[in-house]
Amino acid sequence: MSQPDAKRDVTASAKLLVLLLAFAWGFNWIAAAVALREVSPWSLRFAGAGIGASTLFAAAILTGHNLRVPRGEHLHVMVAGFFNVAAFQILSGFAQLSGATSRAIVITYSMPIWATLLGWILLGERLNKTGTLAFALCVAGLTVLVWPLFADGFPPFVVYSLGCALSWAFATVYMKWVKATIEPLANAAWQLLFGFLFIAAGTLVFEGAPRLWPLPGETMLAILYVGLFGVGLAHFLWWSIVGRLPTITASLGSLLVPVIGVTASTVLLGERPTVPDIVGFVLIFAAAACVLLQPNVKHTEMPE
Q: What is the pTM of this model?
């Protein structure tokens, strides 16, 4: 086989894996929703983050990846782990408990817009016409999505979901701000480990101990899916293949996650989106697409 043919085969395989990973992350929200019927967000994330971190470290070590943290960057990875893993996972759990999973997904995946704004504020990155348009679309989408819900009082899931998006965005911009040089896969692994430690501490404070037994078999399988596939293996595969693909292709894979998650929540969880939900989703999705699909822009966020 010639070198160009071999390269095409590798790229095709990577594209297929990105598609499969989009399904893995999209269904991760569904598995979390199933698990949250029986366990608290703290217990779910304690188990999920613990399994995920163990899986990612094991996969990285077995495949010979470099997990070294450069000197002076441990604190930075710890800060990012608090926001990107601990805060994100706990807030997403409470968002799903207090509102529809589909709405939580849509609001959470407004993250690229907030990262763009934070980059403008904290890094002095130029906010171009595309970024301005994305922000306008995002605000319009959030308004259309959320405004009707205030008729029945203040919906707490909105705060939790926006907290997810903002904590995810802040961690991404923070690592750019400190000019971290740690390898992406090592960054993901150590963030998961530090995030797990923060979640474990919070679980001890708020629950005394994780409540994971006895549980129905369906709940146990859902927790295992979250930790093994939704967190550990998914991150390993993503960072192992993303360097082999053009930025646009990888970004399309990221954009598929909310589409799959919202569709699956409708089919599997029985959620029925309203007209404002659909319009808000379309506007927020368009806003995220504006940011993620800009040519020649490299995205370094950890996908969720």
A: 0.91
